[in-house]
Write a structure and sequence with these properties.
This protein has ten helices and 14 strands. A hairpin with a 2-residue loop joins β2 and β3. Helices cover 45% and strands 19% of the residues. The strands form three sheets. It has a six-stranded antiparallel beta sheet. Strands 3-2-14-13 form a four-stranded mixed beta sheet, covered by helices on one side. A four-stranded mixed beta sheet has the order 6-7-9-10. The protein has two domains: 124 residues; 155 residues, no CATH class. The chain is α+β, with helices and mostly antiparallel strands. The N terminus is likely disordered.
Length: 320
């Protein structure tokens, strides 16, 4: 049975409202001196697949150290990432089962053409040092003496070597090819895992491939679990976009720019809301078609309504 706690976990940070509310504390923790760098054109290959950075994220060099976006590379290494704004701490850890499913979908969407560059080069950017702390699987890790972490548009950057050593995985850097590559244990020998993930509760235990066609009724848990995975993916997408918009707003120096970012935020909220409704409609259809209660949808909607209401209030306060 899906519990209320599990429902809240799926929707709690749908639009990263907690981060938006505490952005000023993050900015306050960051030293004010920006560092001007030029982005590098680099290829990221993880588990044999080329991954492309989201728009607005880069790879760059500071004092001969290659800096990468911590969240993206951690995801590529099959790790979950959580940010505690109160302590300015980034926690990298092994993902839960539901997070693993979301990670696979995220990385699938980030996969680009083989041989293509993953990051744009030649862009002049100014990154801000940030006094963040880091834990990896519960153990605090510190940057090497003389190194700093940086932030750009809500994304934290750290040295590639720091990520590799802290996660305990071999991440290779080939300066000749301009390629960063790694192989994760999570990708080895797990091809069949997702195939059985939603059918083990059926208990049919029948012979597979016996020549007949068996119509299997999906369980209530499989339908709602699928909905929660989609909500988790929606959460991640909205989180990334709204974080960037929020930081751009805080960095804007003119009224016109501030208004532009407010409009972008409102547009993104509308897109998130539309996608949420699409997930709800599809889930309701499946539950009804199979004779299951749709009461869980009211819980989803209640959590969403609360979150979206707070988010819109924040945008309204920005506009006033």
């Amino acid at each position: 049975m899906i519990t209320r706690k599990r429902t809240k976990t799926a929707l709690l940070s749908l639009v990263l409202l907690a981060l938006v509310l505490t952005i000023n504390s993050i900015v306050a923790a960051a030293p004010s001196t920006n560092v001007k760098v030029k982005s590098s054109s680099i290829q990221l290959v993880f588990d044999g697949k080329t991954l492309v950075l989201p728009e607005g994220q880069y790879i760059f060099t500071v004092n001969n150290s290659t800096y990468v976006p911590l969240r993206f590379v951690s995801y590529a290494l099959q790790k979950s990432v959580k940010w505690d704004s109160k302590t300015t701490t980034v926690a990298v850890a092994e993902p839960s089962k539901s997070e693993t499913v979301a990670l696979k979908e995220y990385l699938l969407n980030a996969t680009g053409q083989t041989g293509a560059k993953s990051a744009k080069g030649g862009n002049a950017i100014a990154v801000s040092p940030i006094a963040a702390k880091f834990t990896f699987d519960g153990t605090t890790k510190a940057l090497a003496k003389g190194q700093s972490s940086y932030m750009l548009n809500g994304t934290i950057y750290v040295p590639l070597r720091f990520v590799s050593e802290s996660v305990g995985k071999v991440v290779l850097w080939d300066p000749v090819k301009g390629q960063i590559s790694a192989t994760t244990k999570a990708s080895e020998g797990t091809e069949g895992d997702t195939q059985t993930g939603e059918t083990t509760e059926e208990g049919t235990g029948g012979v597979v491939g016996g020549g007949g066609t068996v119509s299997t009724k999906p369980t209530y848990e499989s339908i709602t679990s699928s909905a929660e995975r989609q909500l988790k993916t929606l959460q991640s997408a909205c989180e990334a976009d709204l974080t960037a918009i929020a930081f751009n707003y805080l960095g804007a120096t003119t009224a016109a720019d501030k208004e532009k970012y407010i409009q972008q935020g409102q547009t993104k909220f509308a897109a998130c809301e539309s996608k949420f409704e699409s997930i709800m409609t599809d889930t309701e259809s499946k539950l009804t078609a199979n004779g299951y209660s749709t009461a869980i949808l009211a819980e989803y909607r209640a959590e969403y309504a609360q979150s979206i209401g707070e988010g819109k209030a924040i945008l309204d306060s920005m506009a006033n």
